Amino acid sequence: MSEQEQQAILLCQKGNLEAFGELYDLYFNKIYRFVYYKTYHQETSQDITSETFLKALKAISQFNTKGSFQAWLFKIARNTVIDFYRTRKQTVNIEDVWELGASSDLAGELNNREQYQKIKQYMQGLTLEQREIITLRIWENLTYQEIAQIIGKNEGACKMIYSRTIKKVKEEMNPALFVLCLLMLR
Amino acid sequence: MENEKILDNILSDLYQIDPSFKAMEKELSALIAKLLENKPEIMINENFKQELKAQVLRKAEELKSQKQLRRQATFSWRFALRPVAYVTAGIGVVLLVAMPWMLSKNNPQQLTLNDPFIFNAQEVEKNSFGKLALGDFTPATAPEGSTSGLKQLSQSSQTNLAQNPSRYVAGGGEGISAPINKMMPYRAYNIIYTYKGDPVELNESQLKVYKRKSETSQATLVGRMFSNLKWEGLNFAKFSGLLAQYVTLKEPGNSGYSISLDFNNGMVSINQDMGMVVAVDNLDAQESISSLPPDDKVIAIANRFLAKYGINAANYGSPEVQKQWILRACRASLENRCYIPSSLSVIYPMLVNGQQIYDQGGGKVGMNITVDTTSNKVMSLWNLKTQNYQSSFYEAQTDFNKILEAIQKIYRPYYNNYDNNLGETIEVELGEPQRVYESITRYQNGKTEEFVVPALLFPVKENQASQYYYSPENIVVPLITEMLDFQDQQGPQPVPMPMFESGQGEAK
Lengths: 186, 508
Prior knowledge:
The complex is a heterodimer. By secondary structure, chain A is mostly helical. Chain A has 10 helices and no strands. Chain A has helices at about 5-15, 20-40, 40-60, 70-90, 105-110, 115-125, 130-140, 145-150, 155-170, 175-185. The radius of gyration of chain A is 18 Å and the shape is globular. Mean pLDDT of chain A is about 75; it is low at about 90-110. By secondary structure, chain B is of the alpha+beta class. In chain B, a hairpin with a 2-residue loop joins strand 18 (about 435-445) and strand 19. In chain B, helix 1 crosses helix 2, helix 5 packs parallel to helix 9 and helix 10 runs parallel beside helix 12 (about 480-490). Chain B is globular and about 95 Å long. Chain B starts with a helix and ends in an 18-residue tail after the last helix. The chains are: A mainly alpha, B alpha+beta. The interface between A and B is large, with 48 and 44 residues.
């Protein structure tokens, strides 16, 4: 945690909540991206991101400064996403995925609907947890300790799930399509 | 580079988990590199980001006020519930020690105002603000009494100085002073603006125009505070509906700050009485620039000032030190004299939906802080404004060519109205445009109203702008159709009349 971040958290905990603006600036993009990976829908991502930051603002006095603020914030975001699906059972339109601006080779591969169906079937063998750990570790560059805090497992278990998933992908499928499936499946 | 570092970390993690992964290093590297490379680039809507930030900060302000109120209530209850004996025994101590503290810390009269400096816009019906182009538009920051419609007057000192150097002689403005130099007469140019880049797609047929709301809530609250005052010679309570208009408060001592609250215009300025500032002159341009303190030092001083006085800069972009004007001043000096100013201005560009606002002269609009570079103290802050707006959709121009045509009309020098062959013809190339907002004021029915309208900003390519110091650095064109049409009818707006060289532009 940077000194600037620590200072902003302490100020907020002392009641100077305007310092939350700095934390917002530091984390908005990360949280928005994280939520987007889970919803693939712009408006839904905006709603959940708003809720995440407002919840964090209200609860910041309860944050334990010995822990990682990043992990704490991601956990709030993750729980908000879970609540969202629990309450609304929202379905995602496949067309919305195009907003992601995936690279052209991926887009090309997506055109092959038959191949996509095969991969989809295969990917259903991977759990949400496995995909989540891969995304957080590789795309968000979070530590295992932070990932463990977010998904509520211990660090060792996260490492194990991660290594097994990587092994499985490496042995059984084309990595480009794996990326595509990470984008497509929830 | 960043990806390589992440890749290395991930691989070393994997080897720690299971050393057998090492045998697959090549394939794993390829797999992870592919994943990193294909990390989706999600388009973040900057408007949403800024709006949410404003919403979060408003909530922060609300929570803060609630907490303060709770703290006050808790204090009173605890105090009231104490056993009577305790209270009686300690009453003397309370009166002598605790009461002054209570009065200062928990004064029920203490007034907490919600932060009016956070951007907030309430949408109203289409075309609600009436005609935007009435012919009385002036740059939003033009000083009182300035010529109506003076197109190239900019808030930023660099543009101003080049165009109207007389404003900048000692005590000229923005807390910056300069010695009086003889100014070089400038030649009359027939400027043709060209754009060689790709046309920009303008898809939106309607765009939001923002009108700044006049503030009455703060004026009423402060007025009410005075209504509670009872002086022997004057009873404020007898005056009905007092509204504060201008209030100035000053710290004691010669170097204390004074705060001026202009409730009519929703504006705050802070000043320190520093007397006349003397600048060192007679230097060459490069020496002048290199003698200045580094930008980050000046910005750090300004940032500390904002933090110390609890001024919320959430509505503003990254601060910038304004010093281009020093070079321009050197160039504009007939004797090639330059000087080192002993103060520098830092601008915090104001943002609307994440986009910067420019005045009609192409200068950034924002909150300014002047730093005295000898004492490393802030001398003044100005243009801290309330940010409550109404928004209304107006018809927007979607034809990029019409925008290019409008540039020629709006920015053709005034004197070319009389004689198109006056002076040398110069082609000034414009760079890639970007979406910004333009700040405009309208004078109607005795009132000045401020608007922020969507616009395109074309930067004047640097190599050319530096040659013609009377040329603006940026060209700003509003995207609202009726404003463009109006400019079309009006033709060019006046710019300062050049001092013609012998024989040029004489009566025929």
